[in-house]
């Protein structure tokens, strides 16, 4: 009996030690931005457990990383400005492509789009990308502003339209890095302009519609509110709008949601898979990136969150209704009209931050 008890104790000690030694991957990503099956599948294939935390703004991500020793192995910053800033600050580990055998499956043209933020594509792989535009309730917009255009930021930025649409709710995502470039482009200025007169023009235009804006809030909050029919116009990310439209259809309450891809040219936004310089387990992080870049895995992510990926071989595995939606995968003509933002000097970033604070405060 004693021998049996001793054997059981030994087995418990060994199994407990093995459990304690099981690897843990710490991921910090946007909310509503993963296929849950992909996470469980990664653990099943590798034995590496995943601790998955979420954020709803780049400011939150940057604040967590700026504090040092965040404990994360994988983060998903937007190429500009966050990835670029982190690279300049030495906060990211260069990727070892020998540990990412699926690296070559990325679209070279899209990788070229993010080289301005990440020269040589040394620090980030493309996770998902999308555009910035307007979520709309077409029925409510037509009822309140029948003469307003449904293909332009004029719908939001012209005070005469915003005044009428305020009755059904207007929201703007709380993201200066996405909103201000779009407003500058709409105003006929360079999205990267640092000229004081251009920034004043954008700020003046935003302040003119501020009395009619019900909420300036996180994109994830807008997603749920649009799906529930709380806003009839919202400036936010394309994938969030498409997710909201799907949720509204599933709810069966008769809420129709559309997406306006601005004819003036939409901002392309790239979210990148990156590894912090102090990542606890960089080998596991490389394994996760290699896993996500597989066509079958990335197709599942796109099907779940309605954002396009950068793996052309995944397209045949993407659901036809998602693959053929030009709001998910814009046409070549639309992409040609689109823009990506460039890096700004710290002084220019501070000026934009002050302009954004004045817009939020309404003065």
Task: Describe the structure in your own words.
The chain has 2 domains: 174 residues, Periplasmic binding protein-like II (D-Maltodextrin-Binding Protein, domain 2); 158 residues, 3-Layer(aba) Sandwich (D-Maltodextrin-Binding Protein, domain 2), CATH 3.40.190. With 363 residues, it is of the alpha/beta class. Strands 4, 5, 6, 7, 8 and 9 form a 6-stranded mixed β-sheet that branches. It has 17 helices and 9 strands. It is globular, with a radius of gyration of 22 Å. Helices cover 47% and strands 13% of the residues. α2 links the parallel β1 and β2.
Structure, briefly:
The chain is an alpha/beta fold.
Question: Helix count?
Answer: 17
On the 0 to 100 scale, the average pLDDT is 90
CATH architecture of the largest domain: 3-Layer(aba) Sandwich
How many domain regions?
Answer: 2
The tally of beta strands, per DSSP, is 9
Could you tell me how far the N terminus lies from the C terminus, measured between alpha carbons in angstroms? 81 Å
What is the H/E order? HEHEHEHHEHHHEHHEHEHEEHHHHH
Q: What is the C-level CATH assignment of the largest domain? A: Alpha Beta
Remind me, CATH topology of the largest domain?
A: D-Maltodextrin-Binding Protein, domain 2
**Envelope shape:** globular
CATH superfamily of the largest domain: Periplasmic binding protein-like II
Rg over CA atoms, rounded to whole Å, is 22 Å
Q: Which structural category fits the helices and strands?
A: alpha/beta
Percent strand: 5-15%
């Amino acid at each position: 009996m004693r021998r049996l008890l001793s054997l059981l104790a030994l087995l418990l000690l060994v199994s407990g030690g093995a459990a304690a030694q099981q690897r843990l991957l710490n991921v910090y990503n946007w909310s509503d931005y993963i296929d849950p099956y992909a996470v469980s599948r990664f653990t099943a294939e590798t034995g590496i457990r995943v601790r998955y935390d979420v954020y709803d703004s780049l400011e939150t991500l940057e604040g967590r990383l700026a504090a040092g020793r965040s404990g994360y192995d994988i983060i998903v910053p937007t190429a500009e400005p966050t990835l670029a800033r982190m690279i300049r600050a030495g906060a990211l580990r260069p990727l070892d492509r020998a540990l990412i055998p699926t690296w070559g499956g990325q679209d070279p043209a899209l990788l070229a789009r993010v080289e301005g933020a990440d020269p040589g594509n040394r620090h980030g792989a493309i996770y998902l990308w999308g555009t910035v535009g307007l979520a709309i309730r077409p029925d409510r917009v037509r009822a309140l502003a029948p003469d307003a255009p449904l293909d332009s930021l004029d719908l939001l930025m012209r005070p005469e339209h915003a005044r009428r649409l305020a009755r059904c709710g207007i929201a703007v995502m709380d993201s200066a890095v996405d909103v201000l470039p779009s407003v500058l482009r709409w105003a006929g200025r360079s999205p990267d302009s640092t000229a004081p007169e251009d920034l004043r023009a954008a700020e003046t235009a935003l302040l003119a519609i501020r009395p009619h804006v019900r909420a300036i809030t996180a994109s994830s909050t807008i997603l749920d509110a649009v799906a529930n029919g709380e806003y009839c116009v919202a400036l936010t990310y394309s994938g969030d709008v498409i997710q909201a439209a799907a949720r509204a259809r599933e709810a069966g309450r008769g809420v129709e949601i559309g997406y306006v891809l601005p004819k003036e040219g939409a901002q392309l936004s790239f979210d990148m898979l990156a590894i912090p310089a102090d990542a606890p387990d960089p080998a596991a992080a490389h394994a996760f990136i290699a896993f996500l870049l597989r066509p079958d895995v990335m197709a599942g992510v796109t099907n779940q969150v309605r954002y396009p990926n950068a793996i052309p071989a995944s397209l045949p595995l993407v659901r036809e209704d998602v693959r053929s939606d030009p709001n998910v995968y814009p046409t070549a003509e639309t992409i040609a009209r689109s823009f990506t933002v460039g890096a700004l000097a710290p002084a220019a970033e501070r000026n934009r931050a002050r302009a954004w604070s004045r817009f939020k405060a309404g003065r």
